[in-house]
Amino acid sequence: MVKITGFTINDVRFPTSLTGDGTDAMNTDCDYSSAYVTLLTESDLVGHGMTFTIGRGNDIVCMAIKEVANRLVGKETKELFSNMGKTWDYMMADPQLRWIGPEKGVIHMASGAVNNALWDMYARSRKKPLWKLVVDFTPEELVQSAAFRYISDAITKEEALAMLKEKEAGKKAREEKVRELGYPAYVTSAGWLGYTDEKVARLTKEAVAAGFNHFKMKVGADQANDLRRGKIIRSIIDDPQYLPAGSKPRDLTSEELRGKNAGPTGAVLMIDANQVWDVQQAIDYVTGLRDIKPWFIEEPTAPDDILGHAAIRNALKPYGIGVATGEHAHNRMVFKQLLQAEAIDVVQIDSCRLAGVSEVLSVLLMAAKFSVPVCPHAGGVGLCEYVIHLSLIDYIAVSGTMERNVLEFVDHLHEHFVTPCSINSRGRYNVPTNPDEGYSIEMHQSSIAEYEWPNGSYWVGAKARKV
Ligand SMILES: [Mg+2]
């Protein structure tokens, strides 16, 4: 029996605003940040977790983490791990904290950080990476671990169980396949709004050479500008001369590319507006970008506007352009309604805006039932490290397919993690295999010491340079 005895919290901020990394039409000045928590026990077992912000306000999330983590102090890990769905319900049910949600905003993100830390601890205690812990669950254990409150009108526990049982027999073969091939990924780092045309062209060529064939570009600040940048990217990704040596254009009739507006080499372009438009504005603006043939427009409008997304999706259908959203969908009920209203073509869960692995599992189950692919959001710090685990769970145990899925990859800040994610020569995520890496989110102590805000060595130095 091992009890949780306490926790540490770190407000860690990286000065990404200096390089334009992470810039889009809405977020013009981001310092990628981590509200980072480590749960401690009587033994040397620990659990690391975090949620992601883009700078100011990270301290507010850290304060909320303290309140949520306090609920776990003194609890037996064995009891918490024995029913992670019940544990999740308990974490959400503080009769006073609930008022500053419920299940949304700062308190929910803080709950995500703590729930993720607990799942990290659980995986470490079983000497498995998190994805492996979950795919080795029986269907009953997996359903029991999910957050089911308020979603039974979309999927019942019995339906979820039947779905998972149907996938049981193929789990082993899928695990072997993905270990060998890796999980499909796409690149966002080439298309940040703050980059020059030259930088976009250079990064796009590098991404093609690295084996990627799905690319995302930020749009929404200026339509003519977006069209020009989109054509630059298209001119590179559609040109066979830039493909890696020895590789041929992909089969345009394959399931992998169906309905994705792929160009002649099989390259797919996605665009992301980060919520800048009203509904009609979104329709008009994206219609004007139809020549660059995007697969989908991501976050065209306010993230809570379910019917607005549905209207945009209907209006763009004639151009073969879909709608994706989810990085700001603050709980499973938003995803439930997006699916029920047929408002989206792609579910983009965020690993720490949702309140941790338990709530993610419930969204994976709903998406599988509605046959909508899950392509997690990972533009940020630590998110790529997290989401490979979630996509592996989706593929191996839940949806059983990765053919049409692509997992976002952003090549920033991985060096701060003890077990960073990595990409293979096919442009796919490698499968995490270290039995001690848990949810892969442990940060180097040296990175925390350097970037902790406001007293880490980097920030103290920055202040001195300003003076
Ligand atoms: Mg986005």
From TrEMBL:
<dbReference type="InterPro" id="IPR013341">
    <property type="entry name" value="Mandelate_racemase_N_dom"/>
</dbReference>
<dbReference type="GO" id="GO:0000287">
    <property type="term" value="F:magnesium ion binding"/>
</dbReference>
<dbReference type="InterPro" id="IPR036849">
    <property type="entry name" value="Enolase-like_C_sf"/>
</dbReference>
<dbReference type="InterPro" id="IPR029017">
    <property type="entry name" value="Enolase-like_N"/>
</dbReference>
<feature type="domain" description="Mandelate racemase/muconate lactonizing enzyme C-terminal">
    <location>
        <begin position="197"/>
        <end position="319"/>
    </location>
</feature>
<dbReference type="GO" id="GO:0009063">
    <property type="term" value="P:amino acid catabolic process"/>
</dbReference>
<dbReference type="GO" id="GO:0016052">
    <property type="term" value="P:carbohydrate catabolic process"/>
</dbReference>
<dbReference type="GO" id="GO:0016836">
    <property type="term" value="F:hydro-lyase activity"/>
</dbReference>
<dbReference type="InterPro" id="IPR029065">
    <property type="entry name" value="Enolase_C-like"/>
</dbReference>
<dbReference type="InterPro" id="IPR046945">
    <property type="entry name" value="RHMD-like"/>
</dbReference>
<keyword id="KW-0479">Metal-binding</keyword>
<keyword id="KW-0460">Magnesium</keyword>
<protein>
    <submittedName>
        <fullName>L-galactonate dehydratase</fullName>
    </submittedName>
</protein>
<dbReference type="InterPro" id="IPR013342">
    <property type="entry name" value="Mandelate_racemase_C"/>
</dbReference>
<dbReference type="Pfam" id="PF02746">
    <property type="entry name" value="MR_MLE_N"/>
</dbReference>
<dbReference type="InterPro" id="IPR018110">
    <property type="entry name" value="Mandel_Rmase/mucon_lact_enz_CS"/>
</dbReference>
<dbReference type="Pfam" id="PF13378">
    <property type="entry name" value="MR_MLE_C"/>
</dbReference>
